[in-house]
Amino acid sequence: MTDNNFDYDSFVRNPPNPIDINNLTLQDSLFSSTSPSLSPCNSFNISSLNINGLKMFSQNKIELLNDFFSLKRISFGGIVDTHIHSKQMHFLSKRLSNYTVFSSVLDTSQHVRSSGGVSLFIENSLASHVHTYTSLSSRLLSVDLYFKGNIKLRIFVVYIPPTSDQSLRDDTIDLLILALSDAKRLGFHHAVCGDFNMHLDQFYPLFFNQPQIASKRIHRLFNFLLANGYVDFTPINFSSTSLGTYHRADVVSRIDYVWSCPLLKRFLLTSVIFDVHELSLSDHNPIITYYDFSFLSSSIKPARARQLQRRSRRIFSFDSVIPSQWEDFSAFIDNLCNTSPVAFASWHVNRMCEYLHTHIIAGANAILPARTVGNDHTPKLPKDLEILIQHYRFLNRVLHSIRLLRKYPLTFSSSHDRKWSGYLIRLNNIFNLYKSIFSPIPVLPSSLLSCRTDNFNSLFCTLSHASKLLRGLHLLKEKEFQDSSIKAHLASRDQNFDTDISSFINSALSRSRRRIVLDRVFIDHPTTPQLLTDPTDISDAVVNHFQNAVPIRSSPPSHISALPNRWRSEYSPMDSVSPDIYSSLLSPPSLEEWLSTVSSMPNGKAPGPSMITYEMLKHLGPTANSLLLILIRKCFASADIPDFWRQAMVFPISKPHEWRCQLKNTCPITLLKVIRKAFVKLFYNCLSAILAAHNVLKGGNFAELPGGTCRDPIITLESIIHDANHTDSPLWILSQDISKAFDSVNLTMLKFALERIRLPATAITLILALFMNRSNRVFTAHGETSSYWVRIGIDQGEVISPLLWVIYIDPLLTVLKSEMLDPYILRSPSLLSTDTVSIPDISINNLVFMDDSTLISSSKAGLEHMLSITEEFYSLNNTSANHQKYVLISNSLPLTTTSTILPVEFHLFLSSLNDIPSISVTPLSITSSFRFLGYGLISKA
């Protein structure tokens, strides 16, 4: 739309609220009486810089970039044209310890003239608000942040190719317009920064005076931005000495921008271009746009407070403990444990536990070496290299300040001399510390006043030469550190090849371990999504999630007599099992049995909040061990455990997919007390041996009994598939997905399952005591949450939990076996049968390993029958099955292409326990591969 009253010349020469660039540069001096970086008060900023690639001189450029970010206190720093992969950028960005980097993927295809690569550096207190980031292409990155008050901020970093690569340029522009439209539709405050390779000063006259030309496709991006109310605040200048964002030879232009959407426009303060031409960082100058801090203030204040109050924890350094220290540790604790065994045996288990815990920790604190680390602890550079980097940065700051005095000599005042006296002492200390590289040691003037005679040229040359020498030493020391690190990693790799093949493969394939930092929680509400960053809000959300992660959908009856006929019969005590087989189960263990169990426990495990580790238990002295054995025996005799053992710590780890700050994408690992785990291990060893020796469990679960392995079910399923392919026998395979198996175990139904195998009442009481009246805390980046009561389930990290699950699900497997309908019959080859020896056929309708259940049939009706039974069991036991994740393979379905496969409807039998009439599953193509127990199988060659 043309505005005839619009004064274009006035607009471009006097943009709204500009800052005088020269004055700003003058303040970027160590001699400034104000802060080292002048920026509008109460502001945050977004910057953009084309860095011209980081493959060459990457270390030097990263150092200069760090200096720039620190000097200008950059909040969001967009870097484009990096030419490196995201992993390489992540490695280089470790130099910028105050920033978190997010990077795009890199396009290395041959048809692309430039591989691109864009990144966004976010100051750490702001990075805690990041929910997710998306690499839309190698040249377009978006990062989403959430703040209090339902404020959503999306920042784009873009690198639009020059016109020499028009096809890629068009694709990038179209992708950016689409992304901006999507951000607007979702209600995000958003900004886009980067190198546009376009001249806004040439487009303005067209937009305001020739809209027909401005609307042409070639101008579509600028037309879209201006027509939709986006604003770029950067000053536009036209003189030959203007400070543009791009300079090469005699060409000075402005092709880098920071555009703000209409929602963000009212928070705009100003925008400046920062001169880095003399630093040889790039042929582009960075642009910085400032915004009113009130946009973020309600969320950032607590974030900055947390940054200043980082939590720490004490960890013991077992790898550096020498034998004599372990001897002192044992003797120290034995000396503390001066209570007589008779008196100790009369105590309650709670008092026993507290007594031993207090003395073991006292011995560890007194004798064993330890160190304090933060929750964000990461290995650092060697101390001498860190100090060298600090000195090098200080020298460069002084050099930059002298450069400014050369450029603006009239700004010199007496305050410069006063500050110089302090800097002179530190500079001389630096020269003396590294005198081996200075020959001779530089002599600096005692006063800057004398340097005015040659306009500071001599001092500038001296400091410039010193900076180059210190830079050379820095590169040398860094190379030495890198070489030593590489050698250490090579040695570790060679060792892993022999001792830890999994780590070797992960290293060879550059696999990175998925980690999460629970410093924020995203609430995916359909209308008001929010990202929680306040520690109290996070704690409340975490507790609410883990306490209610498994809904209690049903309440089983108090006695099996109230169960439906099928399940009442199955849960009745098994006639084939004699109670006498358990006679030794709760016998008091000997000291040798206890010590053998402790010695079998693994080292290097996280101890949880108790701080007692297996290493400590293995080095207790005779007195402490005798008292500990009394506690263990009393737990067996009383069928109870100390209350302290019922308190646990939950450590969330990431599931195989992206974390995205959503608690549903985590898997909880429970850290239990190590003495408890050793006690339960002792009990488990005895119980599992009894169950295996007497073949108590009839369901055929291959897990958690001596000799159990996933090898057998894998071979069995391979044999079934092979047989079906060669005999053209109908085959239906359905893999079930059981959600949160351990967490959903109902203790009443577990009691029924234990009574079914005729376990003694005392043993049942002891097992249930492990999981009753429990409380958990969850470990977050801000420390532990408040304690909460566990409502249902058994602990994921408990030694006996897998065995209890096998016992828990055995009634279902037994019913499936006893009520077979159209199982798959695996017949023996006729060549193997003779007149005298006949190998019987094998009927198979399920293969189960732990909580991985696979139903097998020769007909659809057979699967429907089994699905009806499993739904009854899941309803009765509060077990949740995710029908959407069921996997179906069948050779009895029409052969179609993958794109035309239709869902298969399984009709179930309704009952008092099952109200689901049907389950719909989309089958895999018969030629597709699928995974069974982590093993890849092909259903048809």
TrEMBL record:
Residues 634-937 form the Reverse transcriptase domain. PROSITE patterns: RT_POL. SUPFAM superfamilies: DNase I-like. One of its GO terms (molecular function) is catalytic activity. InterPro entries: Endo/exonu/phosph_ase_sf, Endo/exonuclease/phosphatase, RT_dom. This is Reverse transcriptase domain-containing protein.
